[in-house]
Amino acid sequence: MFKHILVPIDGSVMAEAALPAAAFLAQKLAARVTLMHVIEKNAPTEVHGQRHLQHPEDAESYLRELAARSFPAEVPVDIHVHSTEVDDVAASIVAHADELKHDLVIMCSHGKGAAVHLFLGSIAQSVIALDSRPVLITHPTPDGSLPRFSCRHVLVPLDEDPEHAHALPVSKAIARACGATLHLLMVIPDLATLSGDIAVASKMLPGTTSRLLELSREDAEHYFEGLENELRQEGFQSSAHVLRGDPATVIVEAAERTEIDLVVVGTHGKTGMDALWSGSVAHRICSQSRVPLLLLRVGKG
């Protein structure tokens, strides 16, 4: 399980929204934390309406103060300031992997809005696109206060892609450490929410497509029945549901309706236009939901 958590901080209150999750998980997982700031080339004087950290000395002082007030004494916290100016913050964060040897990155997504987010992505999503290490994305609260973080209910969306099932072992480890309930969810599209080549085919063969989707639902329910039994035999509290509709929309609505604390999904690491054209479910969840999202890189991207 995760033993070293990296938290990149740009100096804004928004970025500090990642700290409650880092403090909570560091305690539960007995992990250490590194707070990191990257000096940007030609950085603006303000970021999100606040003073931007442009000098290494200011950044080091800020991170030390942040470590003292944001983490309990039993959590070991290091600080790291990358003082050489860089153009690409996400690439710099990834480049520090061998040096810092972290195994989880926790970042705040600054919430530019769904439309812009889908086209441009965010630094957090760029990090997962560039590296294989998991990234936990949190969101600031509307009033600017630090969001509360707990881990009582973990949602694990699965689908017919076997690579996405890699999210389950990590979810189980987190649930065991935190005493959380696991909620499994599979969303089978209906005719109205199909996309890509299958949507085109469905217009020519709507009856056949409907039957195939119904068979997929039956297979998913059978699969979940066995999986839920296994989880309970392992001592987990769990639930499993198969729903119909647009996968990203249904997942977001389910997470908010059932007061989920963390969503864990596998992703092929697509961002920006690649994610838009491929219909990346993970990217759309990140853009539409304010529930903390743990992205696990699967496959070759």
From TrEMBL:
Transmembrane segments: none annotated. Residues 1-138, 152-297 form the UspA domain. It comes from the Bacteria. It holds the Pfam family Usp. Belongs to the universal stress protein A family. PANTHER family: STRESS RESPONSE PROTEIN NHAX, UNIVERSAL STRESS PROTEIN UP12. This is Universal stress protein. It comes from Geomesophilobacter sediminis. The lineage of its organism: Bacteria, Pseudomonadati, Thermodesulfobacteriota, Desulfuromonadia, Geobacterales.
